[in-house]
Design a protein that fits this description.
Layout: H1 11-38, E1 43-47, E2 50-55, E3 58-63, H2 71-79, H3 81-90, E4 98-102, H4 106-116, E5 120-124, E6 134-137, H5 140-153, E7 160-165, E8 171-175, E9 180-184
Antiparallel strand pairs: 1-2, 2-3, 4-7, 5-6, 5-7, 8-9
Helix pairs in contact: 2-3, 4-5
């Protein structure tokens, strides 16, 4: 007799599923990385499936096997806060101290927040328009509270979340659709 009861996957199962996915998907980019290195091109790995290959004086972003002119590579820059901030930082622009930590690693978040000194900001990598962004997190208790809120918004407990030092000041944004720069307080 079969049971209709569905037992949810454990954290270990979810982490194994993610590791298997990264190993399978990352294999394609490993092939590209090895060929670039064989040809003498410097490679900077950003994520398991994303890298920058420097050819001449040009840094070219590759996602999976898709090159810098492909929609997949461009979308990765636009949608992935971690990749975008890595590129901006490598270009010499100062960015707040940050880390990219799995949602289910509460103690790692707390240690990092203490190290860079509160207040901090949370930014889920896969949400947009400010959804899941939490500001003014100023204590371990507030950090745990906001991690629980993010857990309700993101699909997987092993999802990476960006945590960064919060600075007060003007916020400047470049809007590509209008090509205008605006500021707000």
């Amino acid at each position: 007799m079969s049971s209709n009861y569905y037992e949810p996957a454990s954290i270990d199962d979810a982490q194994q599923k993610q590791a298997d996915y990264e190993r399978k998907e990352g294999f394609k980019s490993v092939l590209l990385e090895e060929e670039a290195l064989r040809r003498g091109y410097p490679v900077r790995r950003l994520m398991f499936d994303t890298m920058i290959i420097t050819i001449g004086n040009s840094d070219l972003l590759f996602k999976d096997m898709n090159g810098p002119s492909s929609s997949a590579a461009i979308q990765e820059i636009c949608d992935n806060k971690y990749v975008a901030r890595s590129i901006v930082s490598e270009s010499g622009v100062n960015v707040p101290k940050s880390a990219y930590i799995r949602l289910n690693q509460t103690e790692v978040f707390i240690q990092f927040a203490r190290q860079i000194e509160y207040p901090v900001v949370f930014k889920p990598n896969n949400l947009s328009r400010g959804e899941g962004v939490f500001l003014n997190i100023d204590s371990d208790e507030a950090l745990e509270h906001h991690l629980a809120k993010i857990a309700d918004l993101v699909p997987e407990p092993q999802e990476n979340i960006l945590i960064e030092k919060q600075y007060m000041g003007d916020d400047f944004r470049y809007q590509k659709s209008t090509c205008q720069c605006s500021g707000r307080r």
